[in-house]
TrEMBL record, chain A:
<keyword id="KW-0175">Coiled coil</keyword>
<dbReference type="InterPro" id="IPR000261">
    <property type="entry name" value="EH_dom"/>
</dbReference>
<feature type="compositionally biased region" description="Pro residues">
    <location>
        <begin position="160"/>
        <end position="170"/>
    </location>
</feature>
<dbReference type="InterPro" id="IPR002048">
    <property type="entry name" value="EF_hand_dom"/>
</dbReference>
<feature type="region of interest" description="Disordered">
    <location>
        <begin position="565"/>
        <end position="586"/>
    </location>
</feature>
<feature type="region of interest" description="Disordered">
    <location>
        <begin position="138"/>
        <end position="170"/>
    </location>
</feature>
<feature type="compositionally biased region" description="Polar residues">
    <location>
        <begin position="526"/>
        <end position="538"/>
    </location>
</feature>
<feature type="coiled-coil region">
    <location>
        <begin position="641"/>
        <end position="679"/>
    </location>
</feature>
<dbReference type="InterPro" id="IPR011992">
    <property type="entry name" value="EF-hand-dom_pair"/>
</dbReference>
Automatic annotation (TrEMBL), chain B:
<dbReference type="GO" id="GO:0048471">
    <property type="term" value="C:perinuclear region of cytoplasm"/>
</dbReference>
<dbReference type="InterPro" id="IPR044760">
    <property type="entry name" value="TRAPPC2L"/>
</dbReference>
<comment type="similarity">
    <text>Belongs to the TRAPP small subunits family. Sedlin subfamily.</text>
</comment>
<dbReference type="InterPro" id="IPR011012">
    <property type="entry name" value="Longin-like_dom_sf"/>
</dbReference>
<dbReference type="GO" id="GO:0005794">
    <property type="term" value="C:Golgi apparatus"/>
</dbReference>
<dbReference type="GO" id="GO:0005783">
    <property type="term" value="C:endoplasmic reticulum"/>
</dbReference>
<keyword id="KW-0256">Endoplasmic reticulum</keyword>
<keyword id="KW-0333">Golgi apparatus</keyword>
<keyword id="KW-0931">ER-Golgi transport</keyword>
Length: 689, 139
């Protein structure tokens, strides 16, 4: 055990061998090459290092305070070591105090890897039995992994190893996994020294890790037994095939996201504007802060709009979040637009069917066709009802029967067009993920790469927002164009036709009543011919006489005859003459309407009368000819017309009453206004003077 | 090194305020609040004619013995106020300007987020990270 240099706080720091070694490595790392005073570590590098410890910012502030760097203004070795120890304490869940570093602690962990990796592969504190501070977000993923890790680490501890050796092993676990994830690109200087001691492990896993070969082999350290344990649990590191990576979008998901993108914005190369995306993602029922964070992650160029890869990333994050995966702090590499861009645009050629449609086609038609193709592939799935229900609940994993089925479910649900159903699609897609994801995943994050990306993105965004005219124009043009989403009523081809058919039928119904108005002009003819024809055939005569009487009597309306039996004879017709009087009152109010209606009931009356007599009778009456073609209406229609007329009359009465009331109110208000104006004029002369 | 960074809305209420030494937070809040008066003074002193050409960086608002307060006002009347430690003499004016520019960029990114309603408090993690980096850079 060594005693580290006493810090400004006057504490005595006890460092183990491993700690001493590690701290000196880190300190050497943070020291600037040449330049400023040798014993001091460069502020920025220290800052980077501390941030890589994944501790919250205020904890880091406390640590810097405690270690005394603030007071002296720089990070000397003492301050640095104290700070490192404090970081280790904080990562172990102990409060940031001087006292906490007096005990033995695991080495502080610095990584650019996501929290999940370190959590997933266990934690040194776990071995020590210390409940370490798990960020609550990663707790879920922890749960299945920890028992495995715990067991394995227990096994590996059995060979004679000092407790202090195993802690370095566990940080090395994720260091190794992180490093061997498949990225041979140069890492930040921070990680290199960490990688160096653990190359032995890499060497043993050459057959699995394609990119591990970047690191030269060194003699194995004591961790060889650990390495074997790691080999057992190691996932295939084939960089092209990570079925268990939650942040990797599968083909089916990609297609699904692309289809969703199309529903919002048919042009795959264009953007979805912020407001459209906001409405869409709000349907996922995630809380707004989380959606805000997801947007931040996925909108890489920060232009307020989502391109297709950005949209896929955002959608994927939402789906993952719905499934309980915590949101990352940085966008995973597999969700970066650069990564997704070629993949997302590739299926475009597969969807040539849709792309062949001209842009002028309304979206509804496009989605209709699209849905038609989906309909063909849909099969009845009894389990489809389940995902339909579960959307709002942040449920645990539900085992989908198959990815294809679930996709068909999504297609099925997509056909049900309402917004809720669109949201339900998310749930079905969400169900696909658990199948793909297994507990053992790890991040593929490289903050260096991401920083590079963000750096690249940043100047790009500036240019987009300020200078690029064509981009602004393009964005100005295209975002407004997203056609309205297919309405609830017609996304199905059949329903659309039904709508048309229905309209046609209603028009056909109305067309029945067309003949009556043209019958108006012949009215005088009828009246003239009435008496003339009254002398005609018997059955027609009384009908005609009654018809004539109706004509002559302006106000007599034959509404009542509708109620009568279709087979009307003279007697009922004569009774009709008497009965219409009661209908007069109703019908006087809107004079024009009853005239038409008069024709209609008269039509019906006539038609009903003439149904029984031969058609020849009716043909003899030229005046009635316009009515002749319309012999179809039966009593049902008569009754329908009657009820319709009654309703209209009632409505008319109500509206008339309302009108009169409003007129009265208007008069009152006028009076008030006049009173006020007169008062005003009384006052005015006074002020004018 | 900034000890306190605040983003003040047009209506002079804080959208975001964060300070490093967490025990003296109230003091910094008060400082920022009083600095708003100085900001208004500077703006009105410029005159109406210069409103369009007004430079966003307002410079040193006022120094005290412990720290200096710098101001920056955007075209939408959103103010950024930064309190820096006086003991840190290495910080020069153009560094402060660059810090404000970074703040402004991050603020713009926050605004681009459709889920952010202008006038809400800023809860963006990216913004937090950027502010942290500014506070810690010469830690």
């Amino acid at each position: 055990m060594e005693q580290g240099p006493a810090g400004a706080a006057g504490l005595r720091l006890l460092l183990s061998d491993a700690e001493q070694q590690r701290y000196s490595e880190l300190f050497a790392l943070c020291c600037p090459e040449g330049g400023s005073p040798a014993p001091a570590a460069g502020g920025s590098k220290v800052g980077d290092l501390f941030r890589a410890s994944q501790l919250p910012a205020d904890t880091l502030c406390q640590i810097t305070e405690l270690c005394g760097a603030k007071r002296v203004g720089y990070f000397g070795p003492a301050q640095f070591y104290v700070a490192l120890k404090l970081i280790a304490a904080a990562q172990s869940g102990l409060p940031v105090r001087i006292e906490s570093i007096k005990s033995e602690l695991p080495l502080p962990r610095f990584m650019a890897v996501k929290n999940d990796v370190e959590m997933r592969y266990g934690n040194a504190a776990e071995i020590h039995g210390v409940k370490f501070q798990i960020p609550p977000a990663t707790l879920e993923k922890n749960s299945f992994r920890k028992p495995d890790e715990g067991d394995k680490q227990q096994e590996t501890k059995s060979p004679p190893m000092s407790p202090m050796c195993s802690p370095p092993a566990s940080p090395s676990n994720y260091q190794r996994i992180h490093l061997s994830y498949g990225y041979g690109k140069p890492r930040s200087g921070l990680e290199q020294p960490h990688g160096v001691p653990y190359e032995a492990r890499h060497a043993t896993h050459q057959q699995e890790g394609p990119a591990i070969g970047n690191y030269g082999s060194k003699s194995a350290l004591v961790h060889s037994s650990l390495s074997q344990a790691l080999a057992a649990e190691k996932e295939p590191h084939d960089s092209s095939n990570y079925p268990d990576d939650p942040w990797r979008i599968t083909e089916e998901q990609q297609e699904y996201y692309i289809n969703q993108f199309k529903s919002l914005q048919p042009d795959l190369h264009s953007f979805i504007s912020g407001s459209v995306a906001k409405n869409f993602f709000t349907k996922s029922k995630l809380p707004i802060p989380e959606l805000s964070h997801i947007w931040e992650l996925s909108d890489v160029d920060c232009d307020g709009a989502l391109t297709l890869p950005e949209f896929c990333a955002a959608f994927h994050l939402i789906v993952a979040r719905k499934n309980g995966y915590p949101l990352p702090d940085v966008l995973p590499e597999t969700l970066l637009p650069d990564y997704l861009a070629p993949a997302s645009l590739k299926p475009k050629c597969d969807c040539a069917l849709l792309d062949s449609y001209p842009e002028s086609l309304p979206v509804s038609q496009q989605t209709r066709d699209f849905n038609r193709t989906e309909l063909e592939t849909v099969h009845e799935d009894p389990t489809s009802s389940e995902p339909l229900i579960l959307f709002d609940v942040a449920t645990s994993v539900v085992e989908p029967t198959s990815v294809v089925e679930v996709l068909d479910n999504s297609a099925l649900t997509q056909d049900a067009i309402s917004d809720d159903n669109q949201a339900l699609n998310i749930s079905t897609a969400a169900k696909t993920i658990p199948k793909d994801f297994k507990p053992c995943q790890y991040w593929s994050v490289k903050t260096v790469a991401q920083e590079l990306n963000t750096l690249k993105a940043r100047p790009r965004s500036r240019s987009y927002s300020s200078t690029s005219i064509e981009d602004a124009v393009k964005r100005g043009e295209e975002p407004p164009t997203p056609p309205p989403r297919p309405q609830k009523s017609h996304s199905r081809a059949s329903s659309l036709d039904l709508n048309k058919i229905f309209q046609q039928s209603t028009q056909a119904v109305k067309s029945v009543w067309l003949p009556p108005p043209p019958a108006l002009p012949p009215r005088p003819l009828v009246s003239q011919q009435g008496p003339h024809h009254a002398t005609n055939t018997e059955p027609a005569a009384p009908a005609k006489s009654s018809y004539v009487e109706f004509r002559l009597q302006e106000q007599t309306k034959q509404v009542s005859e509708i109620e009568l039996h279709p087979q009307m004879n003279r007697v009922p017709s004569q009774t009709e003459e008497s009965s219409p009087t009661k209908k007069e009152i109703l019908l006087t109010q809107p004079p024009s309407k009853p005239i038409r209606r008069k024709f209609r009931p008269e039509n019906q009356m006539l038609e009903s009368q003439e149904l029984t007599p031969s058609l020849s009778v009716t043909s003899s009456l030229p005046a009635v000819k316009p009515h002749l073609p319309v012999q179809k209406p039966s009593s049902k229609q008569k009754k329908a017309i009657q009820t319709a007329i009654r309703k209209n009359k009632e409505a008319n009465a109500v509206l008339a009453r309302l009108n009169s009331e409003l007129q009265q109110q208007l008069k009152e208000v006028h009076k008030e206004r006049i009173a006020l104006e007169s008062q005003l004029e009384q006052f005015r002369p006074v002020t004018v003077l | 090194m900034a000890v306190c960074i605040a983003v003040i809305a047009k209506e002079n209420y804080p959208l975001y305020i964060r300070s490093i030494p967490t025990e003296n937070e109230l003091k910094f809040h008060y400082t920022v609040h009083t600095s708003l008066d100085v900001v208004d003074e500077k703006i009105s002193a410029m005159g109406k004619a210069l409103v369009d050409q007004r430079e966003l960086y307002l410079g040193l608002l006022y120094p005290t013995e412990d720290y200096k307060v710098y101001g920056y006002m955007t075209n939408s009347k959103v103010k950024f106020v930064m309190v820096v430690d006086s003991s840190n003499t290495a910080l020069r004016d153009n560094e402060i300007r660059s810090m404000f520019r970074k703040l402004h960029n991050s603020y713009t990114d926050v605004m681009c987020n459709p889920f952010y309603n202008p006038g809400d408090c800023i809860h963006s993690r990216a913004f937090d990270n950027m502010v942290t980096s500014m506070m810690m850079q010469v830690c």
